[in-house]
Design a protein that fits this description.
- The chain is α+β, with helices and mostly antiparallel strands and 311 residues long.
- It has two domains: 9-102, 2-Layer Sandwich (Phosphorylase Kinase, domain 1); 114-309, Aminoglycoside phosphotransferase (APH), C-terminal lobe (Aminoglycoside 3'-phosphotransferase, Chain: A, domain 2, Alpha-Beta Complex).
- 41% of the residues lie in helices and 18% in strands.
- It contains nine helices and twelve strands.
- Strands 1, 2, 3, 4, 5 and 6 form a six-stranded antiparallel β-sheet that branches. It has a two-stranded antiparallel sheet with strand order 7-10. Strands 8-9 form a two-stranded antiparallel sheet.
- A hairpin with a 2-residue loop joins strand 5 and strand 6 (96-102).
- Helix 7 (249-277) runs antiparallel to helix 8 (287-299).
- The radius of gyration is 20 Å and the shape is globular.
- The termini are far apart.
Length: 311
């Protein structure tokens, strides 16, 4: 497993000493996933989230904090970065980057309503219309070009992934528009209050890449029920997106391909993470849900898929 940082009250008090957060009151551990050790902090001035980046380096965190600052300047609904008294965007603890964000009240919902999906689509389209902050990567961190990393392995999934890569390389239209994308809009990266979108969270994978890939990943992450795509949900997501940024005919034809691509990429990340990088017995088969979604999209005929664009 990842080498998580143990955060004690003494350590946290020391870390926040360079911030204007007010007197420390309490802290609660948060699930930081495979990349962070995070705690919710209560002080005299409010609530905050402190994260120690266990896997990302200083350059990557500089990029992330630059993204968050850019989003705040643009008024986009995302978490707000807190800077130190000397205006630094992050500090170091044991050589690892540490950054603090304002804690946002709301709830994460696994079962998004049509109204919520429309809002997600609208917010994505607005994000794609923003100018990208400087220094963003120009490739998705676990996209097609990274699949080769595991091709030496001897596993049925590797054979499946190799065939998917061949298909996607010929099916993807490289002329599709690229721009500022989130890359990982799953339901657990969305915060709502009374079915109103509060913020899109976790911009760690932000980059300049195909906009349709972002929409495809959101369909994978927000529109499947019981390991099966709900095309009615996809329709609401796409409808929200098109209210802000209508898709052209070529983009509509390619969305099916990018939904499959996103599901393949997400399955690759899970397989690599839980079987190779950090072997985790209770998560080693988590990739199967996403590889199944990729196959489901692939099997859809064009007529069935085109229904999502009908009013």
């Amino acid at each position: 497993m990842a080498d998580y940082t143990k955060l004690t009250i003494k350590i946290v008090k020391k870390l926040i000493a360079g911030y204007d957060l007010g007197e420390f009151e309490s802290m609660t551990p948060l699930d930081g996933g495979q990349a962070n050790s995070s705690v919710k902090i209560s002080t005299k001035t409010g609530l905050f989230t402190l994260s120690v980046c266990d896997e990302k380096n200083q350059e990557e965190i500089q990029c992330l904090t630059r993204v968050l600052s850019h989003l705040e300047a643009q008024g986009f609904p995302a978490t707000r970065l807190v800077r130190t008294q000397s205006k630094k965007s992050f500090i170091l603890h044991g050589g690892k980057p540490v950054y603090i964000k304002e804690f946002l009240a709301g709830e994460v919902c696994s079962n998004l309503s049509p109204r919520m999906l429309v809002q997600v689509g609208q917010a994505m389209a607005k994000l794609h219309g923003l100018e990208a902050p400087q220094g963003l990567p120009k490739q998705f961190p676990y996209g097609l070009k990274t699949f080769n990393e595991i091709f030496d392995g001897n596993h049925p999934y590797v054979d499946w992934l190799r065939e998917k890569k061949k298909f996607l390389e010929t099916a993807i239209d490289p002329t599709m528009d690229k721009g500022f994308i989130h890359g990982d809009i799953f339901w657990d990266n969305l915060l709502f209050s009374d079915q109103s979108l509060v913020a899109i969270l976790d911009f760690e994978e932000a980059c300049i890449y195909y906009k349709l890939y972002d929409l495809g990943m959101a369909a994978v992450g927000c529109c499947a029920k019981s390991q099966t795509f709900s095309m009615d949900r996809v329709k609401q997501l796409v409808a929200g997106y098109q209210q802000v940024c209508p898709l052209g005919d070529a983009e509509k034809k390619q969305l099916k391909i990018f939904m499959e691509y996103a599901a393949v990429a997400a399955s690759f990340w899970r397989f690599r993470q839980y079987n190779l990088r950090y072997p985790t017995p209770d998560k080693k088969d988590n990739y199967l849900e996403l590889s199944s979604l990729a196959d489901q999209v692939h099997a859809m005929d064009k007529g069935q898929f085109s229904d999502i664009f009908k009013a």
